[in-house]
Amino acid sequence: MSTPPQAPSVTLPQAELPEETVCARNDVRRSMRRLRAEQPPELAQSRSAAAQQRLLDWPLWQQARSVALYVGVRGELATSGLLQAAWQDEKVVWLPRVRPDAPGLMEFVACGGPQQLRPGPMGLLEPVDALPGVGPEGFLRHGQQQMAPAADGAAHLAFAPDIALLPGVAFDLAGGRLGYGGGYYDRFLEKALNCPRVGLCFEFQLVSSLPLAPWDQRVNYICTEERILCL
Question: In order of start, what are the domains of the chain with their CATH numbers?
């Protein structure tokens, strides 16, 4: 596979946040990680199954032919049922992969099944290196779509998912999303991912408001084991 073009350096201006906001954001992250760690495994499993079933029954999911997903790990709400259903229904499944050539950036990769995954940084499952990806540097203007070559180079896929499911440490009732602090999703989402964005989390990760930064990207829907919110 040819070497992808060097992505521009992008840095989220963390230092520009007031100290009290930085502390509040870190407090939320610590609190949510603790709540997830204290959740009994069998309860996390049943809650994950309930949330995934809500999505599987949702017309927006059922009508989608191309979906951006992620592999849930480290106490996140599981996505294995969604991935299995998407592949079984022959949806195009886009999964994130960290860009080793561009710190802080990730790309999305069309992945055809679990056999095309391998352990990535911090133990996260990612698409194998042989599969081509679509990075945020390809979105130069609002609404522009980047084309990703297929593995054999004979065809192209447009990165144009009908729906995108996003992880997060916490979400709020206005659609605010607080990530893990690396900024990977915020850098990608700010470019041109214009499909419906769905935050996927446990009900206890949903709060009334979050100490958000100007660069924090929002979602249109939130799905938990108890409900789907349209925001």
Answer: 18-230 (3.40.50.10420)
Distances (CA, A) of 165 to 13, 18, 34, 60, 74: 25, 30, 23, 12, 17
pLDDT digits (tens, 9 = 90+) for 143-177: 444 444 444 443 456 788 999 999 999 999 999 99
Asked whether the beta carbons of 63 and 90 are under 8 A apart, the reply is: no
Start-end of H helices in the chain: 19-38, 41-56, 59-63, 80-88, 184-192
> pLDDT digit string (tens) for 54-99?
999 999 999 999 999 999 887 899 999 999 999 999 999 999 998 8
Give the pairing of strands 163-166 and 197-200: parallel
Buried b / exposed e over 13-28, threshold 16 CB at 10 Å, is eeeebeeeeeeebeeb
CB 199 within 8 Å of CB 220: no
Rounded CA-CA distance 131/122 in Å is: 20
Q: How large is the greatest C-alpha to C-alpha distance in the chain, in angstroms?
A: 53
- Condensed to tens digits (0 to 9), the pLDDT of residues 110-123 reads 999 999 999 987 67
Non-local (6+) Cβ contacts of 190 within 8 A are 136, 215, 217
* Residue 132: both structure tokens together: 């081509």
Residue 126's DSSP bridge partners are 118
Cβ neighbours of residue 134 closer than 8 Å, sequence gap 6 or more: 94, 107, 108, 109, 146, 147, 148, 159
